[in-house]
Amino acid sequence: MRIDFIEIKNFRRLTAVRLDFSEKTTLFVGANNSGKTSAITSLRYFLVQQKAFSVYDIPLALWPCIDELGEAFEKAENEESQNKWKEILPSLDVWLKVSESEIHHVSHLIPTLDWTPDKGIGVRLQLEPEKLDELQKAYINAKKASCDTLNAGQPDKTLENPADDQEETGQGGTAQEETEQAGGDITCSSFSLWPENLMDFLKKRMSSLTVKAYLLDPAKKKAPSGGVAQLQELPDDVEPLDDNPFKGLIRIDEVPAHRGLSDYSGTSGDGDESDQDERGRRQLLTSQLRTYYGKHLDPLKAPEPSDITALQAIHEAQVAFDLRLKDCFKTSLDELEQLGYPGVANPRLIISTSIKPVEGLKHQSAVQYDVTPTQAKNLAPYRLPEQYNGLGYQNLISMVFRLISFRDDWLKVGKAARTDEETGVSTISLPPLHLILLEEPEAHLHVQVQQVFIRKAYDVLRQHHELKDKKSPLSTQLVVSTHSSHIAHEVDFAHMRYFRRHPARNLTETPSSTVINLSEVFGTQDETAQWVSRYLQATHVDLFFADGAILVEGAAERMLVPHFIRHHYKELHSCYVTLMEVGGSHAHRLAPLIEHLGLNTLIITDIDAVEDTTKHKKARPKRGAGLLTGNNVLKKLHPEKESLDELLDIAEDKKERGYDDSFSIRVAYQKAVQVTLKEKEGSSEAIPRTFEDALVFENINLFREANGTGLLKKFKEAVTTKNDISELSQALFDALASGSKAEFALDMLYCEDPASINVPEYIHNGLKWLENKLLLRQKEVLLKENESTEVLSKGT
């Protein structure tokens, strides 16, 4: 048995999303504030902590809808509001995949007589009023009490101007009485006490809502549309289940992002120590070890034959210590007897010990690190308490130990099974599914440890003889949320779930997110899918965590474009942008992935003029020569043109390919520029073919004075010796045929201040486009044109 997928509705920014679960490890990826933590939290709230909900878990855009239900309460118009509550409040649909041999586990959840295991089992957990009538009554009473209090505190206007009051009500009564007679509304002063409205009431009375469970119809399952889950509607007369549907089916454990690690020691010397330092931070590893020992290893709990030796040693130590205590206290007790105590009838005072092994772990130094050199066999051991180890290793040890504890708690390993037998708890029927939620395991870990951990985490959870059997009925699923590209690098592409942010459509809506199953991006595993998968496995990219992307063609752009951004585009430099070198003109292969991620992406590529596309013979760009482009990005992705003349004539605003209101891809390639080689001869048109010659045309004076080797030296010679732009273009074309572009970029960084390099115009236009796009996305609202202009002018 395992979870096939879940569907979350109206929980924070997750309006309607489906999350497909992999058989083993599922990885949540996405930019900051995209909903990864919300997805983990929704699982925790619905499946474990059902009383933890707050009004802030309800999307802000739905608050007015709840206030409307409050107004219906006041008017006693709540006949059909139960279904309206279900439409508004958060819900979680859990779909289980079960086999023929596991039907007995889910017999209470089978929806129809013609159900078969291949259809799956679906259960909706719905937050809704526990008792609608009681909620209405409590709200009306609280509202009336606050209004009565306010009205009682207002000046008596009837004494000041009775005529005005009669004119206001139409009779001699008060305005409140008139309103109540007309429609039953409760009204009071413009200034209000709690509760101002129903949402205000729920801020203090969220306990009025509870989670109820309903069976879902497998025949009504629908696939997501555009990343939006298509949740089925419940019948009006549906009845909730009587009990927790997942009781005995799923065990859930969680490793939260805030793990309470501390490298601060709050005590010193020989004073009393505990597992808390003076700042109140728990010594986590010691606490975990003591808890695990108490559950699974303590010989005093359900003793076994293997514990006899330890118990005998404890008994002997206790007897010896008692004798020592009796000898130490003899003088004091003798003095007490001289005062007449205990006398004849009173009990004697005896001092005895109770030695418990677990008590020996209640101090900060229970967990220690041995730093004794391995060669120093005759030296006393050098050991340090746990807080003196680095946070990274503390975090690693803590997470692994938690996973071990979760596994052994689930399987009732060691003393836990014997203890349950003594208390009458059956250990035969374990929950067949173990779900572990792990948030941000990368905290404090350096890159290599991150990668090793995520590779081994699932294996740790299955490291038990009962779980290694392939026919084992016990399943484990690990769900991990991360911001680390290094962790994403180690997980199979098909197991990632990408959270894509969507800005609000207007100022009255709230931003939302959809979830993309990356295993479905390319459909069948064609050559493009294989290339992207291999590329992502070969490079550490943060494409899944960025707000925008820049794809460049070669090493020179990869090295110099970041310097352009740093020195010339301050707002863009403050945005979360990833820059990827895709090599050659392969950016179009990443297009399906980028389109699904919804990242505003700038593709900086070369126009790559050729005489024909079959032989790919390079040519110096010229107008009217019938030349073509050999660049697949320009031919297959955008603008989908092959003629060099057409590409040169395309307007800047036509180089953008829009997908929706918030996401576009733009290409930036060389364009004709006016270049002045000699002042007295004026400017002439030059058409660069690559990034390198475009850089020369934009920085003629800089290259006159440049010093370097390789291409840099050849470019300087061309600039200083050629008489016109045509000759210079040919010289640059010839030099690039055999020069090293990466070496050229390194020479530029070494010999010149990057801030003094002028950005080629085609790259400048592209970077400004991306900068403007990302600045608008920061507002998380799709503004109108005039509002967008104002935002960009302020640079916010």
Offer a quick outline of the entry:
Helix content is 38%, strand content 16%.
Write the layout of secondary structure elements.
Blueprint: E1 2-11, E2 14-20, E3 25-30, H1 36-47, H2 63-74, H3 81-88, E4 91-97, E5 121-129, H4 132-152, H5 157-160, H6 162-169, H7 175-183, H8 198-204, E6 209-215, E7 250-255, H9 284-296, H10 308-337, E8 368-370, E9 383-385, H11 391-411, H12 415-422, E10 433-439, H13 447-461, H14 465-468, E11 475-481, H15 485-490, E12 496-502, E13 512-517, H16 527-538, E14 548-552, H17 555-568, H18 570-573, E15 577-581, H19 591-597, E16 600-604, E17 609-610, E18 628-629, H20 632-637, H21 644-649, E19 656-660, E20 663-668, E21 673-678, E22 682-686, H22 691-698, H23 700-705, H24 710-721, H25 725-736, H26 741-751, H27 761-777, H28 785-794
Parallel strand pairs: 3-11, 3-12, 7-10, 10-11, 14-15, 14-16, 16-20
Antiparallel strand pairs: 1-2, 1-4, 4-5, 5-6, 8-9, 12-13, 17-18, 19-20, 21-22
Helix pairs in contact: 2-3, 9-11, 11-13, 17-26, 24-25
Oligomeric status: single chain
- By DSSP, the count of extended strands is 22
Give the N-terminus to C-terminus distance in angstroms: 50 Å
Strand order of the largest sheet: 7-10-11-3-12-13
Mean pLDDT rating? 84
List low-pLDDT spans.
162-183, 262-283, 784-792
Give the overall form.
Answer: globular
Count of helical segments? 28
Outline the biggest β-sheet: 6 strands, mixed
- The fraction of residues in strands falls at 15-25%
Please identify the structural class as seen in this structure.
alpha/beta
- Provide the helix percentage: 25-40%
Radius of gyration, whole Å: 36 Å
